């Protein structure tokens, strides 16, 4: 019989990291460095693509650059689904994290080499590596806790989320300084070095994870296990070929096809992939009635998660360009890199994540904790309020003025509040709602919603075209107002349906 991959009874799981299992520290620092590499590169990605060729950039127009950005960030999360499947059925969660980190590091170092070919190769490698690492590290976090530790699990994910944002805070300061101030490729190289640090830390401390996710889940019946193993091998080849063609074709297609067209087509593909996957789960996975209801909740949360990330992920695209073009960054004669404002959101996360972690536990003790759907709704509403701030800031831009960074800082504060209401809660909810045998795949579905949101974010950012705004300045506040209506409207709709969704969740809060 296979070891219990979710056992929490052994000594190494005694609470010893801020009152949590020691393995949380291993995952905390691994994710911290992985996010350093990701957010460090992301902070300068669009700025590099729109910069003039004479200054070392790619010289792309806004729509093309943000479409590529949307495609890249979409695929980063889209491949979380096959990455979770590979880990669940073939590699095990722990090996998937290790191999994924290696591929990510190779991707960043590829981007450190000047040239269009190495640039797109780097994006492809980072996409593949993140697909292996991202869903599975979150799944192991959930596995550190017993089924009766729901509030503590939420708190654990909030601490884990703080680790993510320590890396995200430091990264733009380093890669932005190197990339914007010295050479873009130095910034990309720094991101790769960060991932190497994460890999070293992970290998030195992986023993604290014990058996959680060490091996794929096994079936007691040898005949069924052999049959399953054969189907996995066949499925592995098919899945690998399909997704490799999808990623490589999309990234390589930017040479011959308009990236905007590729982005639109990819959105349609994702939509049907999600529908097909949920149908497959309902038909082929032999779920109980209660499990089907909980899978239905994950499907509902998928929609609202995608809406949230379509707004939140404007940070690396439209809001980053707003910082560069319309924000007064002069500090006593020194021009602050625009990408440094990407560190504001992580600072707020670092400060507020422990507060939210404590808040959920304290409210749970008094039976006052909001349900998961209500937390999601609050996240969407706070996100919309942040864009309302940007709408008012844009009126100053219409008057021909640059605005102070405080407008963006206030926006990021509201976005951070929304993020803490939704993102760590969503990660935790998936690990609680998903059947044990599908937890990696369901985490992949969660990141698929992030992928869809990122793609939409890239397409929306393309509407903030500098030339179009110069011709019609009123376009800027109008675009922000559309985002406000979409996100706040989605939050209010979810509040309305929160009670029936809560009933489908059963004993999960």
Question: What does the model show?
Answer:
- This protein is mainly α and about 500 residues long.
- It has a single domain, classed as Growth Hormone, Chain: A (Up-down Bundle), CATH 1.20.1250.20.
- About 75% of the residues lie in helices and about 0% in strands.
- The chain is built from 18 helices and 4 strands.
- The strands form 2 sheets. The chain has a two-stranded antiparallel ribbon.
- Helix 5 crosses helix 15.
- It is globular.
- The two termini are about 30 Å apart.
- The N terminus is likely disordered.
Summarize the structure.
With 509 residues, the chain is mainly alpha-helical.
Oligomer: single chain
CATH class: Mainly Alpha
Mean pLDDT over the full residue set: 83
The figure for the number of domains is 1
Layout: helices, strands, pairs:
Blueprint: E1 15-17, E2 20-21, H1 23-50, H2 62-78, H3 80-91, H4 93-111, H5 116-143, H6 150-181, H7 184-205, H8 222-252, H9 259-284, H10 289-312, H11 318-326, E3 330-331, E4 334-335, H12 344-365, H13 372-398, H14 406-433, H15 439-461, H16 466-471, H17 475-496, H18 498-504
Helix pairs in contact: 1-2, 1-5, 1-6, 1-7, 2-5, 2-9, 2-15, 3-4, 3-5, 3-8, 3-15, 4-5, 4-7, 5-8, 5-14, 5-15, 6-7, 6-12, 6-14, 9-15, 10-13, 10-14, 10-15, 10-17, 12-14, 13-14, 13-17, 14-15
Core attributes:
mainly alpha, 4 strands, two-stranded antiparallel sheet, Growth Hormone, Chain: A, 18 helices, 509 residues, globular, disordered N terminus
